[in-house]
Design goal:
- The complex is a heterodimer of chains A (352) and B (300).
- Chain A contains nine helices and 19 strands.
- By secondary structure, chain A is of the alpha+beta class.
- In chain A, β4 and β5 (64-65) form a beta hairpin.
- In chain B, α11 (198-227) runs antiparallel to α14 (259-297).
- Classes of the chains: A alpha+beta (352), B mainly alpha (300).
Chain lengths: 352, 300
């Protein structure tokens, strides 16, 4: 079902949880609402579900304006952060709740519950109570319960937050595959970028009640629209005055930059091809990342990080090295974009 | 007697944890403390209870049962039961409604409402009774109107019921508010998002979650309703066989030096207190068993 939000505003006292949020979501997409805690992600979800009333702005679901429609009539499945399973009901009763409310026939309910139990792999647990289940199982029950009445839109609030790391990965791919199979439009909230990138077709980045950027994970990674997005996605550090760096002298004053380890090469003299474009620095720390070394080097007062392949000889702390910064994300009030190291291109030009 | 049953703290007694020897120190200190506690309980609680029954049976079982079967005593018992039968269900409904409003909604003046609920505990029961005399008595500004229409509130059943409701109002609400606040609104929201209306949400989601706390509150409310003396004493008028409840009847008999009869009727209240304590323990035990059982079999 196609979803549209238009200028949603919601304040709680002096706190603006949602600041003129507008977006459109195509039917069948799996969207991740990503942002830091307390940024207003859950408020957006709750407004869509009708559990919160926006101060102003409109919500359309499937082309129908639903502002005045109570949550019961919106046809939305909601999976709560702590699952909110009915603690005095068994797994089967939990799943059947939405169907009983619809006054479906007993045979119908039993059939649908069975379907969902199979879909979610809860066979054999039908007569258990929620507190007799593990976190992952509870999550599946919450998922099955939300899906039972065949909603048009599925909303998940931090669906993996309460599950331990090992099960989380497994559950994530299961959830993605299952949602794909059903083909239901889904929005989930997360503060974990890895989760968002892995699961979502599209990511919406929300910060301080504002929608910073919406796009595919790759788009957001490759061309972050704001300083916040660039800093939030990927591993990154902020540089306040990029014009002091070799090759970036042209950066306008007042411009800020975001640097990522994959933009940087650190090595001994002779290891780096375009030595002229590189700064000289001192190794501050070397740590093993499993598939590479992570090197931190200081250039003046600035610390930059880079990865170094394991095949290369390890660097030592205190060693003088060359630090080549290939590119930076630059941001000022008006513009944002990638800036390549000018010296590097100059060098290449001379070399040719 | 039953009137002295006080509110349990909001949190249900957790299973006691044994302190290690390093914390408790020597065995002597421990036994001394236990001895002091036991001696105190014996002096303040057990001894008076035994006295009630000893005094009641002093002149033999015949006098005991005669005192209870006395028409005035029977009328007092009947009145007490009727009062409780009206006051307890009403306070249950009020209590659930108030707790629901306080725990599940945010609105202006919520803190004030919570304070109001506590008011009957803060006010002396005698004053509580007096309020109703001043409101509905002959000297009140409502008095002439009530007289004219032959409506009797003070010195009649309505006054006794009103005073009892006032005094016992906090029990159910106080028991439920922390419980419902702890449970939050998520299950209700889940039910709503699944299409359930308010009525279904209440009966199928909220009520099952609070049933043990509610039952506990009702038991305490009932004990106090049957045992209330002060407030009822002021509004009742002490008309024998008409507006005397059990506690008032006990007092009258005592003032008339009919000690055996007085203690015999008082023993009914003691029995009520025992019944209350047993019921309370059963409810707590059931509640704990339900949680323990699910905890033990759960988690794999």
């Amino acid at each position: 079902m196609q979803i549209k939000a238009d200028n949603l505003v919601k304040t709680f006292g002096s706190y603006t949880a949602s600041d003129h949020i507008s977006f459109e979501i195509e039917a069948g997409t799996l969207v991740g609402l990503l942002g830091p805690s307390g940024g207003g992600k859950t408020t957006i979800l709750r407004m869509l579900a009708g559990l919160e009333t926006p101060d102003s702005g409109d919500i359309w679901i499937g082309g129908v304006r639903v502002n005045g429609v109570p949550p019961q009539k919106r046809g939305i499945g909601f999976v709560f952060q702590n699952y909110a399973l009915f603690r005095h009901m068994t797994v089967a009763e939990n799943i059947a709740f939405g169907l009983k409310v619809q006054k479906r026939s007993k045979a119908d309910i039993a059939k649908r519950v069975q379907e969902l139990v199979e879909l979610t792999g809860l066979e054999g647990l039908e007569r258990r109570y929620p507190n007799q289940l593990s976190g992952g199982q509870r999550q599946r029950v919450a998922f099955a319960r939300a899906l039972a009445p065949e909603p048009k839109l599925l909303l998940l609030d931090e669906p993996f937050a309460a599950i331990d790391a090992k099960v989380r990965k497994e559950l994530r791919s299961w959830l993605k595959a299952t949602i794909r199979r059903i083909g239901i439009t889904t929005i989930f909230v997360t503060h974990d970028q890895e989760e968002a990138v892995e699961v979502a077709d599209e990511i919406m980045i929300v910060n301080q009640g504002r929608l910073e950027q919406k796009g595919t994970p790759l788009e957001i990674y490759k061309s972050p629209a704001t300083l916040f997005v660039a800093g939030f996605i990927g591993e990154s550090a902020q540089i306040d005055d990029p014009s002091q760096l070799k090759g970036f002298e042209d950066a306008l004053p007042g411009t800020q930059a975001i640097i990522r380890p994959e933009f940087v090469e650190i090595g001994r003299k002779g290891e780096i091809a375009q030595a002229k474009a590189a700064e000289t620095g001192v190794v501050r720390s070397v740590s093993f990342r499993g598939n590479s070394w992570q090197i931190e080097a200081r250039i003046g007062s600035l610390t930059v990080a880079a990865y170094r392949p394991l095949e290369k000889e390890p660097l030592n702390v205190g060693e003088e090295v060359l630090v080549l910064i290939h590119r930076l994300f630059l941001f000022n009030e008006k513009k944002s974009g990638i800036m390549e190291n000018r010296m590097k291109t100059d060098y290449l030009a001379i070399g040719v | 007697m039953a009137g002295s049953v006080t509110m349990a703290p909001a949190s249900k007694t957790p299973r006691s944890r044994e302190y290690s020897a390093s914390v408790t120190g020597s065995g002597f200190g421990k036994w001394l403390l236990i001895a002091i506690a036991l001696a105190f309980i014996a002096l303040v609680l057990i001894l008076p209870l035994i006295t009630v029954f000893a005094e009641a049976f002093r002149k033999g079982a015949g006098v005991y049962f005669a005192a209870i079967r006395d028409p005035d005593a029977l009328s007092a018992i009947k009145l007490t039961l009727i009062t409780a039968l009206i006051a307890v269900p009403l306070n249950t409904v009020f209590g659930v409604a108030a707790a629901w409003a306080i725990a599940k909604f945010s609105f202006k003046g919520k803190q004030f409402l919570i304070t109001l609920i506590d008011l009957p505990f803060a006010v002396s029961p005698v004053i509580s009774g007096l309020i109703f005399v001043l409101l509905f008595g002959a000297q009140s500004w409502l008095g002439p109107y009530l007289m004219e229409h032959n409506i009797r509130i003070v010195f009649a059943l309505p006054g006794i019921v009103l005073a009892t409701i006032f005094v016992t109002f906090p029990f159910v609400a106080r028991e439920l508010i922390p419980l419902m606040q702890a449970q939050g609104t998520q299950e209700e929201e889940a039910a709503v998002s699944l299409g359930a209306g308010g009525w279904i949400v209440f009966w199928r989601v909220t009520l099952p979650n609070i049933k043990w706390g509610l039952l506990y509150g009702i038991i305490l409310c009932n004990a106090r309703a049957m045992g209330e003396f002060g407030a009822v004493s002021v509004v009742s008028g002490h008309i024998r066989g008409e507006t005397n409840t059990i506690p008032l009847h006990v007092e009258i008999l005592y003032n008339e030096y009919q000690f055996a009869a007085s203690f015999a009727v008082a023993s009914l209240l003691v029995l009520l207190a025992f019944a209350t304590l047993i019921a309370k323990s059963v409810v707590e035990w059931k509640h704990r068993q339900a949680t323990v059982q699910t905890e033990q079999t759960g988690g794999n």
